[in-house]
UniProtKB/TrEMBL annotation, chain A:
It is found in: Cell membrane. The lineage of its organism: Bacteria, Pseudomonadati, Bacteroidota, Flavobacteriia, Flavobacteriales. Belongs to the FAD-dependent oxidoreductase 2 family. FRD/SDH subfamily. This is succinate dehydrogenase. It comes from Maribacter luteus. The active site is at R338. Residues 532-670 form the Fumarate reductase/succinate dehydrogenase flavoprotein-like C-terminal domain. GO terms for molecular function: electron transfer activity; flavin adenine dinucleotide binding; succinate dehydrogenase (quinone) activity. Its EC number is 1.3.5.1. Gene3D superfamilies: FAD/NAD(P)-binding domain, Fumarate reductase/succinate dehydrogenase flavoprotein-like, C-terminal domain, Succinate dehydrogenase/fumarate reductase flavoprotein, catalytic domain. Keywords: Cell membrane, Electron transport, FAD, Flavoprotein, Membrane, Oxidoreductase, Transport.
UniProtKB/TrEMBL annotation, chain B:
Pfam families: Fer2_3, Fer4_8. PANTHER family: SUCCINATE DEHYDROGENASE, SUCCINATE DEHYDROGENASE IRON-SULFUR PROTEIN. The keyword Protease does not apply. This is Succinate dehydrogenase/fumarate reductase iron-sulfur subunit. InterPro entries: 2Fe-2S_ferredoxin-like_sf, 2Fe2S_fd_BS, 4Fe4S_Fe-S-bd, Beta-grasp_dom_sf, Helical_ferredxn, SDH/FRD_Iron-Sulfur, Succ_DH/fum_Rdtase_Fe-S, Succ_DH/fum_Rdtase_N. It comes from Maribacter luteus. GO terms for biological process: respiratory electron transport chain; tricarboxylic acid cycle. Residues 151-181 form the 4Fe-4S ferredoxin-type domain. GO terms for molecular function: 2 iron, 2 sulfur cluster binding; 4 iron, 4 sulfur cluster binding; electron transfer activity; metal ion binding; oxidoreductase activity. Belongs to the succinate dehydrogenase/fumarate reductase iron-sulfur protein family. It comes from the Bacteria. Its cofactor is [4Fe-4S] cluster; [2Fe-2S] cluster; [3Fe-4S] cluster. Keywords: 2Fe-2S, 4Fe-4S, Iron, Iron-sulfur, Metal-binding, Oxidoreductase.
Amino acid sequence: MSVLDSKVPEGPIKDKWTNYKDKINLVNPANKRHIDIIVVGTGLAGGSAAATLAELGYNVKAFAYQDSPRRAHSIAAQGGINAAKNYMGDGDSTYRLFYDTVKGGDYRSREANVYRLAEVSSNIIDQCVAQGVPFARDYGGLLDNRSFGGVLVSRTFYAKGQTGQQLLLGCYSAMNRQIARGKIEMHNRHEMLDVVKIDGKARGIIARNLITGEIERHSAHAVVIATGGYGNVYFLSTNAMGSNATAAWKIHKKGAFFANPCFTQIHPTCIPRSGDYQSKLTLMSESLRNDGRIWVPAKLEDAKAIQEGRLKPTELAEEDRDYYLERRYPAFGNLVPRDVASRAAKERCDAGYGVNATGEAVYLDFAAAIERYGKVQAKIQGISNPSKEKITELGEAIVEEKYGNLFQMYEKIVDENPYKTPMMIYPATHYTMGGVWVDYNLMTTVPGLYCIGEANFSDHGANRLGASALMQGLADGYFVLPYTIGDYLADDIRTGVIPTDTKEFDEVEKEVKDKIDFFINNNGTKSVDYFHKRLGKVMWDKVGMSRNEKGLKEAMAEIKQIREEFWKEVKVPGSANEMNPELEKAGRVADFLELGELFAKDALVREESCGGHFREESVELDGEQKGEAKRNDKDFAFVSAWEYKGEPADAVLHKEQLEFKDIELKQRSYK
Amino acid sequence: MNLTLKIWRQKGPQDKGKMVDYKVSDISEHMSFLEMMDVLNEQLVNSGEEPVAFDHDCREGICGMCSLHINGEAHGPDRGITTCQLHMRMFKDGDTITIEPWRAKAFPVIKDLVVDRSAFERIQQAGGYISVNTSGNTQDANSIPISKHAADEAMDAAACIGCGACVASCKNSSAMLFVGAKVSQFALLPQGQVEATDRVKNMVAQMDLEGFGNCTNTGACEVECPKGITLENIARMNRELFKASLIKF
Ligand SMILES: Cc1cc2nc3c(=O)[nH]c(=O)nc-3n(C[C@H](O)[C@H](O)[C@H](O)COP(=O)(O)OP(=O)(O)OC[C@H]3O[C@@H](n4cnc5c(N)ncnc54)[C@H](O)[C@@H]3O)c2cc1C
Ligand code: SF4
Ligand code: FES
């Protein structure tokens, strides 16, 4: 018997959320003033939650490791945010967004949660516009949409190539209003290092002031974790340098189950690595796949010539190019979901067709789009018989308008002009679908401890569709958590302030301080990065885009080995009572070194291929789908939720069986 | 390439601080500036010295954390980029590079190259928002059409990343470009009209309180701004302020 209760309400899927809201307990406005809530993380998820909870009247204490909520990594999202508004009249609906998300996630998400997400999606756009988010508009003054991978409608709202920035600034402004009113107490440059439980309930946290090094105690009636994803377990990823799993991992060690750690998204369109000094990878928005065509040379000798710099991509004739996505997936072409596009790129590069010196890159080519747009523009402007140059000029202007900032970013990094020569791209770790297990209320397995945004195991199953993370973060924070948390807090109206001078706080604070002292006093010989890079290499090579039993077992052993060396040999200069970035990194890498092993273990147990998780042992052997990933619904239609038992290898698996009542389980075909 | 770095080191807010010389070698032209700093820090850690503290996070020019004054210019040579987007191909073998924190009274140094920009936070809290609660029954997003030009212009103003390069570049340490950008974003949108008067007054009052200097139209801020925020935003803010001064409630 599983101890997991998803708490999904009864009734038809369309009515669940409405009925649920009608029946939950509410906290009256006067009582909210006596209730404190801690929100750790102020990206889209935490920021929207903090602002909304404060508007409702709760006392919110919010925490972020950056010097302002505006700098959370949500700021880096480029492409857009989905919503089932059907402004384009192309047949979109709540059901269709729900369906696309479940299908895109390869049928490994909880139906009821995803339906609710689709249901509140259109409120998000209304809310953001009301806050002054400058979404792109058409000439009639109405909101514009674009389309993203894995779907057949245009439902993505965007603000140039800076959608995440604008949404985050919207929620930052809502927070600022509440900070000014005194309803949010904002703790910037603070890192949560552990959670404190009293009588089994989450009642506070221990945080380090990153400026002074002081260890602080903070109490509340409920704690919300919104600290983002754990992609940096790979060392190189599109995440920010400081993105970390510490809060999520620490609550796991205190009783919150960790779900589906092996579901990680490797994004197909990132700028390839250029050398060993590389500190992070940069994403080129997926929206580029709307207009860019992906290809590699069709002949090995051409690929070789390109790798050695003897041949230029522009010199290769049309028939010598292999537009492999269009070839393999005629229905979706360059817009197949991310996992499919990434694996296809790896397949070509592994076969020797890669296009830069490392052999790990494919082309993303805009020449066709430039010509197409140029011709349309020439017509619009009434230019008869336009020259080739004129068409290119007109087309480039349109492409610049759509993607100008991305092209500029590319040129700054790679030093090549993507209007004139195709971009080079390669997959990189980008997003983690796995995370802390939560029920329908977004509560973890610890009472009073919630987890929202990318940090939870979320609504994206085994693969997330583009523009759906922003949607989920804001749905959780603006429209879901504020209801569900009230239901829990209704029991706490008479509790009064939670004191921090108790033995529970003493104990956890001591654990935290001991660990910091260890780092400072451990006169090792190797830097934190040295270990992080080694971990990242194991993860990428053996727990990356394609996985097998042998590799995963090796990975588990190797990670354990690195972890043991880390605790012996790590060197952290400076002291504990000051700003100390090396000390911050040490704590984060220590947690990645445990999480990485559980990650590999989860991948080992899941002997099927689904979404971002590809097991070489599980592929279709014949038919139209030959060579494609093979999902196994009979044995693996569950969420794996891991319970901490000391060593990561000893974690105990709990299964949440997934039921599909409203969507038929199907082979995911993009052919 | 091999380089000499002259870097500002300061233990804490009370410390006086000084420039210290370091040498780095084998720097690739493909590295970003901050990756070069990583190389230096790895070198320092390995030799038991304290690494240089500097702010950074996204390393793709959007979070606004990175903030180095390089060879006398905010975000270094090259235009339209942040420090993290600066590449070593802008330098050559044998160069000496001076690296300092933002210098402004309103941005005190915390440690080495890290400064305290919380003054920007307080300015935003003074009015950088539209008062709308989250309810789930806000009017439909398309109910008020906004001309594409206004929306695009609002977006251009909203592109500010709050890095503070404008302040660091200004001889008066004025924050007008930053504040002007936020005021402009809302002034250009219908949603921002209701609170326009109070917003501009309160934000400007807070700006003055924080100790930022006056604007004397030298335009250095516009030149160094990584996000192309134009002086037009300062003009618009001044107009808004003038308009506000005519309204009495
Ligand atoms: C380059 C890039 C582009 C993307 N583009 C898109 C897109 O176009 N569309 C889309 O839908 N999704 C996109 N995504 C995904 C999406 O941006 C993220 O999944 C989402 O923004 C995560 O939001 P969050 O609020 O959960 O976490 P984050 O925004 O990562 O916020 C985490 C917060 O937690 C804080 N924090 C972390 N650890 C601690 C700690 N220990 N103590 C205290 N505070 C802590 C941080 O300070 C921060 O405030 C993109 C992601 C990346 C990396
Ligand atoms: S106006 Fe420009 S320089 Fe000033 S804070 Fe904004 S982005 Fe930075
Ligand atoms: S590190 Fe984010 S803008 Fe430079």
